[in-house]
Amino acid sequence: MATDKQSGEGNRSIDSVANQQRAIQSRQDQKDAGNQQKEQSKEPVQAGPAEQPVPPLEQPHLVKPGIEAQMQLKPRFMAEHYKGSGKLQGQVAIVTGGDSGIGRAVAVLYAREGADVAILYLNEHEDAAETARCVEAEGQRCLAIAGDVKDMTFCQDAVDQVVSQFGRLDVLVNNAAFQEHAMSLMDLTEERFDETMRTNIYGYFHMAKAALPYLKKGAAIINTGSVTGLQGSSHLLDYSATKGAIHAFTMSLASNLLPQGIRVNAIAPGPVWTPLNPADQPPEKIAVFGQDTDMHRPAQPEELSPAYVFLASGICSSYISGIVLPITGSVG
Fold first, then answer.
1. Which of 117, 127, 196, 234 has the fewest CB atoms in 10 Å of its CB?
2. Which of 202, 239, 308, 319 is catalytic?
3. CATH number at residue 298
4. Measured distance CA(39)–CA(306) in Å, rounded
5. Mean pLDDT for each 10-residue chunk of the chain (332 residues)?
6. What is the pTM of this model?
7. Which run of H or of E encompasses 60?
């Protein structure tokens, strides 16, 4: 049985613990009050060597398919701080949708790493010419081919043309895409659904099938997926569905081709400043584009292109196949 003295000492010990906890709470409350203003401001995060554009972003609505040359705020694709080191030396790459946006940034870095590059595009001739100029400025050859990836015959002819001119094929980047928002499922006609599906998933299937006979051990296929394929999007029902299909296609094809030593991976970008989105959304939506990410801004194409180098190069990623790499600007 505890004596009065022992009981008193115990109470003082308990009171001391409670006082200590209240002191910790008080100090945190003071810090919270000071941080509340910062949290509400949601300042855009800059985590790289270059200061990237932040909302509000001024950009008029673009007519599809979206011309990068017509953008008021030009996407950043040159990755001036990125130094090439021969990771793709002597190789040949095809990049669909390579005229602008992510595709242009990837084409430039592949050239910087020593690859000749073919860019496939729809009809954005001015953009394609600028991408070709930038690739050639890196000291590599560039072949620009206009056509529709929905057409299997075009895809086969384009791949044959690339191999005929460059003598080989080592990397395929499937990146061409169609996107148009719809507020309701009832707004999605068969024609629109087919255009999205056939461009975004049939195009990847056609290109992979056309390229496969030329791909050797050590080759790589990289598919551009999307955060919408991971999380869905209430106003991009058909687009999100195709991106989810691309992720599954990536993992399945990776398993199928692994015995041949051909790796297949995907990258799932979040919001990226390219012609795709101003050609979809009105200016008031584009002004806050990317603001709902944890970084409170969209990515620039040059912030994604190094990941495409990483997954293309056997020097960097020879033990990686079947992944979907999220680059979303948000934690997790």
1. 234
2. 239
3. 3.40.50.720
4. 31
5. 58 82 85 66 88 86 87 93 98 98 98 98 96 98 98 98 98 95 94 96 98 98 97 94 98 98 98 86 87 94 98 98 98 88
6. 0.88
7. none
